[in-house]
């Protein structure tokens, strides 16, 4: 019986879940994007086998809801078989997403891979290491009660690990995803709580260790930075270290390009290039990097940028390809502002008219009549287009939420650039 | 600026032609000239004067180009400037009246920045420019058109911008899907990916069914396989039994035959032994005879040899002499050299004794008096030790002095050092704080994350408007199922689609009705058509009147005034006839009117039907909305359409997720903040800072401070400890060095005593040196060498004498002849005799050996025969016979029995070889009682059963194969996830395209809105003024101008005098178009003049298409313009002079003749 061992704690694999927000374009490695979650799982298995970890715990959301492919489950089964061949036991817990799939329940897995039951709290004992793992899977998509009350007392003389898929967050009655609290977890007197569901890596407590490993592979722009699993080293029955092992194969990042005092397109290109290079050096870690570029700051190019967003996006993609073939652009977002008073740009001819027009554009966003025109005009278009991705700060989202003034504000800037260009 | 004078000094055909345009209230000047008089030349001269001679053109057909001159007196307010222009490539071509150069800026200032082109376009008008301008206005294409149109809208280039925007937005999205549109393309990609996804994604039900079916069939397969195996096993048993039936019977027969007879059975080994022993016995008899014969022959040879026994007895001594013979010879040869060496050594010895001042003595005596070799060596070693000790003592003394100095220095430093106390508690606190990493950053990051999540949650919640409430209430909402949503959406879509379609149809029909009515009204208003209703009406009135008259005539009723009624009847009859006639004469028009009426009626009918359908559809939509509203109300959901509710539900999911994330982030923040506070408090208390510092300072600063304090204390303690250690070490070292010196002194004393003892023992002087000791050694060695050589010479002489005596003894004893006498030769002869004796002796030995061997062979053969007979004795006894021949017979009998046993064994092997590995007893038991017929019958039965089950297996295997194929068909590799990924990519691009379209379309709508608003706001003074002038120019045929901004482009319209109709430009006559554009140009010039640009207007025969009345109006307009700026009107029409005078009366019309 050894009280010193190492294990890998992962969660939220979301196998075969597509990466979101990336448009297809020349230079984008579609195959790499399609297979990212699978390759991340392969990385996990390779790490476990080459580092000879003693066992692996996956705290829920192995799959992303219903399977789209049979291959999804077969791929996972093959990965588990590799761990089994390396004599590495695996303990799996079904999360809210896994509960969606009926097929998941019938997935044939090697004997060394064990699922925690969804009917009761299972306790698995690893006698070689004196480890007791307690866990209960989600039976349904939504679990509103605190499941930790069903978890048993720690097994005496064993290193006790609680495995739980939870959104944490307190004892509110209507919490959807097995709500609980740090106090409740601590009260169980386990040595380690292997949590899942939250997609960011976090060590919430060290006495005992309460750990979210985060998602194994970032899948959208809100899941930036290093993603992987937590390698836990236990020495003499106490956690000596719990560190995040990067296992993601594609990384997401947000890059802000300060356009302050920017006066030319070439200068903008240089700044974007420099920002992308910095990002590659600091964040890629030899992986393909998916970047959302956000232009910020006050610049005289504000209106022009608004009016030429589409070509600018192509320019940015070209720059990204030039900087590194593994650098992909998720989106170009404008958050710039105007620096100078428009009137100073108005040429002499037609000055008063232009001033009148620009004054109107400035006031347009508060003109109710115009906003009604827009609402009416866009009703047909919006009824045919799918709703935007939730949480995405796009014009589409703003418009659907009735924020027509934001749309008008953007369009005014773009139109101003066009009118000025025409007069020049 | 205006021209006061124009001087065509040398220009074209002109020379010294001066035209004066004195200023007057109406600054209108009419320049008259017949064809070829030079009107165009004069206009060109004005341009050349103002803007310089162009390179390509020249008016040098009369004068040389370099002589060309044109001049003027220009007025700008009160300022008069005389200028001249000459032709020239470069440099100043503008001059004053005295041909001095003038700056171009002078003219540029007067021209308000106009170029030749803008001046021509705006200020210099001829009929061509008017036409071009007109066309440009209609199409609003080129700069002129845009400039003129901008005059209507007040904006420049908006049409083109609008067009561009519309083209751009059209490239993205349009109401009708078109493959070239980016949105449509991406949407199609999305749909394709979704379709692909739907077609290849695995469906749980299908998967489960196929999986269960496959498992079931595989189970059936297994059962059938087991049955088949059982039958096959039995069949194998039956076939085996059939195979071994015959050999088993043979085996049984052989076993029975053996059982019936008695016999002696030897083992094969015994049989072989008997045969082999017989053979050995015979061979031994033969070998014994041969050996006895050979022994007799060898004995004869031995008896013939006589041995030299005397010589052989002295063999060793003789051999010794032979071997020593060489040594003795060599010793005799080396004796002189030894004597010489002895003499040399003696001389060396004498020399050494003299050096040591010792007396000569015999060598043995001398060797006894000299000190022993070990004593000399000991003395030399003592001398070397003394040298070493002396140098060591010197070094020790120096080291001792240095060590004392070092100790004193450490003592001083330590005395000056003050010890600071360290605090283990501080150290523990600092180490604990270090382990925390960056709690400031973690707390800040957690705070940022929490705020971000909170903001995102609040934002997500705010997006749920018109619904409002907290997260809990949001979660509690009962969400309609997908079926309800789909049904409601379908109802809403269907109803809304019908309403929209019917409304569109109604609108179309309404427009059609209005159009029909308008056509009918136009036909009616034209007066050329008479409708049937009109005729019927007239006839109806006539008939009514006739009925009254008829009643009166028939006495049925009484008219008050029959005559008047008769007159009215005639009038009505005439009217009816007139209408009939008119209708007859205007048959075609009336027919058209009739058709128009019918069309109106039909359109009205269709419209009424469409309206009814709209009402029905609206009611259905309203009902659907009511149902949906009730559904929403029941679930406390916001009043949204189904599609909006779907979006709202997605937003709700997002809001719930955000709320969960915010709560998790809050928990993280609390933990981080608590850790930070605790750490700061510990640091503050450990470093003794005031407690307020825990709040005021960051963790990093507190840790830095604590580390600094700790480091200072630790460094101080380390230095103190080090100093103490160093001092202790130095003191130890001093003591050590002192002890070493003492030890050295003790050693020196011991040495002295030893020296004295040894020197006394050696009988040498105390001051003896190492060199003298070396010489003593030399004397000893040389004396030893002398003694040794003397001994060698003595030994050699003794050995030679003994050699001679021994030779003589043996020579005499063997009766050898007297000569020779030389001992060496005698030894040679003795050697030869000894060799002969040795040869004879060897032959005797060889024959003796052969005899022994033959005797042994004889004895061996005899023993072998006896042994064979002895071996056969028990076998004879075993076989119960006495004679060897009887034994042979018994052996043959045993062999025959063995053969039978062999056959039995072969049969057994055969049975076992075909017995499927079963033991023989089992096989014989298996066969027992079986008959071939029985077995054949069972075999046939089994074959039938196996055949049947084989078919079943094939059937089930086929089904399993199909099932496996079906199950495998569900596996599309990674097709679905790839399709899902593709769909996500398309969706992302669709978001981008949506955003692009929203932006472009909003730009379009925004620009239209702005233009329309500005148009409405101002209605443009220029357009109003142009409209007024146009009214004047057309003799009030048109009242004003307006711009129709409907659609993507704007159209200029002339508003008719009745203000109810408008005529587009392309519907106007040529003259009216000229007047329209003159009005616009004049209005534009007036606006420029008001803006400060006052330049002369050059008008070249503008009234080509004007009738006199409108030409008169034209002069009035230009006269009005001339009140604010100079107008130079060029014409070759004589009648225009009169019209001008008439129009511009009472002002004087200034006329210049060319």
Explain what this protein looks like in three dimensions.
The complex is a heterodimer of chains A (424) and B (1154). Chain A is α/β, with parallel strands linked by helices and 424 residues long. In chain A, 33% of the residues lie in helices and 23% in strands. Chain A has helices spanning 30-34, 36-50, 70-85, 182-187, 265-284, 302-307, 309-323, 351-364, 368-384, 395-400, 404-423, and strands at residues 5-10, 55-59, 90-93, 113-115, 122-126, 131-135, 159-165, 192-196, 202-206, 209-212, 228-235, 238-246, 251-258, 289-299, 327-338. In chain A, helix 5 (265-284) links the parallel strand 13 (251-258) and strand 14. Chain A is elongated, with a radius of gyration of 26 Å. Chain B is an alpha/beta fold and 1154 residues long. Chain B has a 5-stranded antiparallel beta sheet with strand order 2-1-4-5-6, covered by helices on one side. A 5-stranded parallel beta sheet of chain B has the order 7-11-12-3-13, sandwiched between helices. In chain B, strands 8-9-10 form a 3-stranded antiparallel beta sheet. The two termini of chain B are 23 Å apart. The mean pLDDT of chain B is 83.
């Amino acid at each position: 019986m050894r009280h010193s061992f190492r294990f890998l704690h992962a969660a939220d694999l979301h196998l075969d879940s597509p990466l979101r927000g990336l448009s297809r374009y020349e230079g984008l490695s579609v195959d790499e994007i399609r297979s990212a979650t699978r390759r991340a799982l392969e990385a996990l298995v390779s790490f476990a086998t080459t580092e000879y970890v003693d066992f692996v715990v996956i705290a829920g959301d192995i799959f992303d809801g219903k399977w789209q492919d049979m291959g999804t489950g077969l791929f996972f089964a093959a990965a588990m078989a590799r761990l089994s061949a390396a004599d590495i036991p695996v303990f799996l817990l079904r999360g809210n997403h896994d509960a969606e799939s009926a097929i998941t329940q019938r997935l044939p897995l090697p004997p060394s891979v064990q699922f925690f039951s969804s009917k009761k709290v299972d306790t698995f004992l690893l006698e070689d290491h004196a480890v007791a793992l307690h866990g209960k899977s989600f039976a349904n998509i939504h679990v509103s009660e605190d499941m930790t009350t069903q978890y048993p007392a720690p097994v005496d003389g064993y290193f006790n690990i609680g495995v739980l898929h939870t959104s944490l967050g307190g004892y509110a009655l209507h919490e959807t995803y097995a709500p609980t609290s740090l106090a409740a977890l601590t009260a169980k007197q386990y040595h380690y709580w292997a949590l899942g569901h939250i997609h960011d890596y976090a060590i919430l407590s060290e006495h005992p260790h309460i750990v979210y490993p985060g998602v194994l592979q970032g899948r959208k722009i809100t899941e930036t930075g290093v993603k992987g699993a937590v390698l836990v080293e236990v020495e003499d029955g106490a956690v000596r270290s719990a560190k995040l092992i990067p296992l993601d194969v594609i990384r997401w990042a947000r890059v802000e390009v300060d356009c302050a005092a920017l006066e030319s397109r070439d200068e903008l290109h240089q700044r974007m290039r420099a920002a992308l290079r910095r990002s590659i050096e600091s964040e890629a870690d030899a992986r393909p990097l998916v970047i959302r570029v956000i232009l910020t700051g006050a610049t005289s190019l504000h209106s022009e940028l608004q009016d030429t967003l589409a070509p600018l996006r192509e320019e940015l993609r070209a720059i990204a390809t030039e900087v590194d073939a593994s650098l992909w652009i998720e989106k170009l977002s404008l958050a710039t502002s105007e620096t100078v008073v428009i009137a100073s740009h108005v040429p002499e001819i037609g000055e008063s008219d232009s001033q009148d027009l620009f004054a109107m554009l400035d006031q347009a966003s508060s003109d109710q009549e115009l906003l009604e025109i827009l609402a009416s005009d866009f009703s047909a278009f919006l009824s045919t287009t799918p709703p935007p991705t939730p949480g995405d700060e796009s014009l589409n989202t703003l418009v659907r939420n009735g924020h027509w003034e934001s749309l008008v504000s953007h369009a005014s800037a773009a139109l101003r650039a066009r009118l000025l260009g025409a007069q020049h | 600026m205006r021209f006061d004078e124009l001087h065509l000094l040398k220009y074209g055909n002109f020379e010294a032609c001066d035209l004066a345009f004195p200023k007057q209230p109406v600054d209108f000047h009419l320049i008259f000239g017949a064809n070829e008089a030079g009107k165009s030349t004069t206009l060109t001269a004005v341009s050349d004067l103002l803007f310089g001679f162009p390179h390509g053109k020249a008016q040098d057909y009369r004068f040389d180009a370099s002589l060309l001159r044109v001049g003027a007196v220009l007025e700008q307010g009160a300022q008069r400037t005389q200028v001249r222009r000459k032709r020239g490539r470069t440099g100043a071509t503008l001059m004053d009246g005295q041909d001095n150069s003038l700056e171009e800026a002078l003219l540029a200032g007067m021209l308000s920045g106009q170029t030749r082109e803008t001046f021509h376009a705006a200020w210099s008008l001829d009929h061509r420019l008017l036409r071009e301008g007109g066309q440009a206005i209609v199409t609003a294409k080129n700069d002129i058109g845009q400039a003129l149109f901008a005059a209507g809208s007040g904006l420049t280039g908006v049409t083109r911008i609008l067009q561009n925007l519309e083209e751009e937005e059209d490239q993205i999205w349009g109401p009708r899907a078109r493959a070239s549109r980016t949105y449509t393309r991406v949407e199609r990609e999305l749909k394709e990916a979704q379709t692909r996804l739907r077609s290849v994604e695995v469906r749980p039900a299908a998967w489960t069914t196929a999986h269960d079916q496959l498992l079931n069939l595989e189970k059936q397969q297994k059962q059938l396989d087991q049955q088949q195996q059982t039958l096959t096993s039995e069949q194998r048993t039956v076939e085996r039994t059939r195979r071994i039936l015959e050999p088993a019977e043979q085996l049984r027969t052989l076993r029975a035959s053996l059982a019936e007879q008695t016999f002696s059975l030897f083992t094969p080994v015994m049989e072989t032994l008997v045969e082999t022993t017989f053979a050995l016995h015979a061979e031994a008899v033969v070998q014994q005879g041969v050996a006895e014969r050979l022994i007799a022959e060898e004995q004869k040879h031995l008896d013939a040899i006589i041995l030299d026994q005397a010589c052989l007895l002295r063999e060793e001594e003789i051999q010794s002499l032979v071997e020593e013979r060489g040594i003795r010879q060599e010793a005799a040869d080396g004796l002189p050299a030894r004597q010489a060496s002895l003499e040399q050594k003696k001389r060396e010895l004498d020399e050494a004794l003299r050096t040591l001042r010792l007396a000569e003595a015999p060598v043995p005596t001398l060797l006894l008096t000299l000190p022993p070799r070990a004593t000399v060596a000991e003395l030399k070693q003592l001398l070397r030790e003394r040298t070493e000790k002396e140098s060591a003592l010197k070094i020790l003394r120096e080291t001792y002095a240095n060590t004392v100095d070092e100790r004193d220095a450490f003592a001083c430093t330590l005395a000056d050092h003050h010890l600071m106390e360290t605090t283990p508690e501080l150290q523990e606190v600092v180490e604990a704080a270090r382990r925390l990493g960056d709690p400031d950053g973690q707390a800040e990051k957690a705070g940022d994350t929490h705020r971000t999540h909170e903001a995102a949650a609040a934002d997500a919640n705010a997006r749920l408007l018109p619904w409002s409430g907290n997260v809990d209430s949001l979660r509690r909402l009962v969400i309609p199922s997908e079926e309800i949503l789909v049904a409601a959406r379908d109802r809403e879509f269907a109803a809304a689609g019908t309403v929209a379609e019917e409304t569109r149809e109604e609108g179309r029909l309404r427009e059609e009705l209005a159009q029909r009515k308008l056509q009918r009204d136009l036909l009616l208003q034209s007066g050329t058509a008479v409708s049937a209703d009109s005729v019927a009406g007239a006839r109806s009135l006539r008939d009514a009147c006739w009925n009254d008259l008829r009643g009166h005539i028939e006495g049925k009723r009484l008219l008050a005034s029959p005559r008047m009624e008769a007159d009215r009847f005639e009038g009505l009859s005439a009217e009816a006839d007139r209408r009939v006639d008119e209708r007859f004469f205007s048959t075609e028009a009336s027919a058209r009117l009739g058709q128009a009426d019918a069309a109106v009626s039909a359109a009205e009918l269709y419209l009424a039907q469409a309206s009814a359908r709209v009402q029905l559809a609206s009611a259905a939509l309203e009902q659907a909305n009511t149902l949906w509203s009730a559904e929403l109300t029941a679930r406390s959901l916001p009043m949204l359409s189904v599609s909006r509710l779907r979006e709202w539900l997605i937003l709700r999911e997002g809001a719930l997720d955000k709320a969960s994330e915010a709560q998790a982030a809050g928990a993280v923040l609390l933990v981080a903040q608590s850790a930070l506070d605790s750490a700061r408090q510990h640091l503050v208390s450990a470093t003794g800072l005031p407690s307020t510092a825990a709040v005021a300072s960051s963790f990093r600063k507190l840790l830095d401070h604590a580390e600094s304090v700790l480091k200072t204390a630790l460094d101080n303690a380390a230095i103190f400890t080090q100093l103490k250690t160093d001092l202790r070490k130095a003191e130890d070292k001093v003591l050590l060095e002192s002890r070493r010196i003492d030890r050295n002194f003790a050693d020196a004393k011991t040495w002295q005593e030893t020296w004295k003892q040894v020197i006394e023992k050696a009988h040498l002087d105390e001051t003896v040196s190492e060199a003298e000791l070396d010489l003593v050694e030399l004397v000893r060695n040389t004396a030893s060498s002398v003694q040794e050589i003397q001994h060698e010479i003595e030994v050699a002489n003794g050995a030679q004498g003994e050699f001679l005596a021994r030779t003589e003894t043996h020579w005499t004893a063997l009766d050898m002849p007297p000569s020779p006498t030389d001992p060496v030769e005698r030894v040679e002869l003795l050697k030869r005799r000894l060799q002969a004796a040795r040869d004879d002796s060897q032959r005797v030995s060889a024959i003796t050996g052969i005899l022994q061997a033959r005797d042994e062979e004889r004895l061996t053969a005899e023993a072998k025969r006896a042994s064979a007979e002895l071996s056969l004795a028990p076998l004879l006894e075993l076989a119960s016979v006495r004679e060897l021949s009887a034994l042979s017979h018994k052996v043959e009998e045993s062999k025959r029995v063995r053969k039978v046993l062999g056959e039995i064994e072969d049969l057994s092997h055969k049975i076992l070889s075909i017995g499927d590995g079963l033991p023989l007893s089992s096989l014989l038991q298996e066969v027992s009682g079986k008959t071939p017929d029985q077995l054949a019958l069972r075999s046939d039965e089994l074959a039938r059963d196996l055949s049947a089950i084989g078919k079943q297996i094939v059937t089930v295997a086929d089904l399993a194969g199909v099932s496996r194929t079906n199950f495998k068909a569900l596996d599309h590799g990674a097709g679905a996830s790839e399709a899902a990924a593709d769909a996500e990519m398309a969706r992302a691009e669709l978001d981008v395209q949506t955003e692009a379209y929203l932006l472009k379309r909003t730009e379009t709508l925004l620009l239209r809105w702005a233009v329309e608003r500005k148009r409405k706001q101002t209605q443009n003074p220029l357009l109003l003024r142009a409209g007024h002038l146009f009214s004047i120019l057309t003799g009030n045929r048109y009242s004003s101008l307006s711009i129709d901004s409907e659609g993507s482009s704007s159209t200029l319209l002339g508003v008719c005098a009745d203000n109810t109709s408008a005529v587009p430009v392309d519907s106007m006559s040529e003259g009216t178009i000229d007047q329209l554009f003159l009005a616009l140009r004049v209005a534009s010039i007036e606006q420029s003049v008001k803006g400060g640009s006052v330049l002369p207007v050059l008008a070249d025969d503008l009234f080509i298409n004007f009738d006199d009345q409108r030409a008169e109006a034209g002069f009035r307009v230009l006269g009005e313009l001339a009140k604010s700026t100079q107008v130079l009107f060029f014409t070759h029409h004589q009648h225009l002079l009169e019209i001008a005078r008439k129009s511009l009366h009472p002002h004087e019309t200034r006329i210049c003749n060319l």
